[in-house]
Write a structure and sequence with these properties.
The chain is of the alpha/beta class. The chain has one domain: Rossmann fold (3-Layer(aba) Sandwich), CATH 3.40.50. The chain is about 35% helix and about 20% strand. The strands form two sheets. Strands 2-1-3-6-7 form a five-stranded parallel sheet, with helices on both faces. β4 and β5 (about 120-125) form a beta hairpin. The mean pLDDT is about 95.
Length: about 210
C-alpha cells in the first residue's frame, strides 16, 4: 500500500489556508489511486520537544538507532521513509520556517541515518519522492509587489535535498492578511494544484 505523509506546521491546524490546499492535494491522490493511505502529522497538536543534551550526546557518540534519546527522531524519520508522497503545509514566520517545522527538520536530518558525509559534503540516504510544499504568508514575498525576502523556499529545498528528496515543488499563498489578495492567491493556488502532474486533477486522466 502506498502512503501519503502530510506534515502541517501551521499553528492554526486544519483552519490554515495552506493546509486546505495541501489537504486537497492529498485528496486528489486518494481519489485517483487505489490502495493508498494518508498519514497526517500536525506539528502544532503533536509538536516535537526541544532538542535535549541526551539527544545531542547520542548524535555525537553515534549511538544505535534504538537509543532512547532517538525515540522521537526515529518516529518522524520512519514516517518519512515509509511515505511515497510528501506534502508539507507551512506558514512563513519571520521570512522562514516556523519553530515547529524547524524542530521537525532537526529531528529528521540525522547523520548516518538520513544523510552521510562524503568528501566534506552531506549526501542524502533517503529515496527521492514527489514532494509538494504549500506556503502561507500574510505578506508578499514573490513577484513585482514583494515587500519581504523569502528564505524559506531555498532553505527548505536544501534541507530536503540533504536527505535525498529533490523532486520538490512549491505553491505560494501570499498576502493573506488582505482579503482581495488572499482571494487572488487562493484562485492561483487552485489552478497551480489542478495542473500539477502528480498532485493535481490532471493526473486522473493518466491513471
Amino acid at each position: 500500500m502506498k502512503t501519503i505523509l502530510l506534515v502541517n506546521a501551521s499553528p492554526l491546524g486544519s483552519a490554515s489556508r495552506a493546509y486546505a490546499t495541501a489537504r486537497k492535494a492529498a485528496d486528489n491522490l486518494l481519489e485517483s489511486e487505489a490502495n493508498i493511505r494518508l498519514i497526517e502529522r500536525d506539528l502544532s497538536a503533536t509538536h516535537p520537544s526541544p532538542i535535549t543534551k541526551d539527544y545531542a550526546d547520542a548524535v555525537v557518540q553515534r549511538a544505535e538507532r534504538d537509543a532512547p534519546a532517538f525515540a522521537q527522531s526515529e518516529i518522524l524519520i520512519q514516517e518519512l521513509i515509509d511515505c511515497d508522497y510528501l506534502i508539507v503545509a507551512t506558514p512563513m514566520h519571520n521570512f522562514t520556517v516556523p519553530a515547529s517545522l524547524k524542530l521537525w527538520i532537526d529531528y529528521v536530518l540525522r547523520v548516518n541515518r538520513t544523510f552521510t558525509h562524503r568528501d566534506g559534503y552531506k549526501i542524502g540516504l533517503l529515496a527521492d519522492r514527489p514532494t509538494l510544499v504549500v506556503v502561507g504568508s500574510g505578506g508578499v514575498y514573490h513577484g513585482a509587489h514583494a515587500k519581504q525576502p523569502d528564505y524559506l523556499s531555498s532553505y527548505f529545498t536544501h534541507v530536503l535535498a540533504t536527505i535525498g528528496i529533490n523532486t520538490v515543488q512549491f505553491i505560494h499563498l501570499q498576502g493573506l492578511v488582505r482579503p482581495d489578495m488572499a482571494e487572488q492567491s487562493r484562485i492561483l493556488a487552485e489552478r497551480q494544484l489542478a495542473a500539477h502532474p502528480v498532485f493535481g486533477l490532471e493526473r486522473r486522466a493518466f491513471i
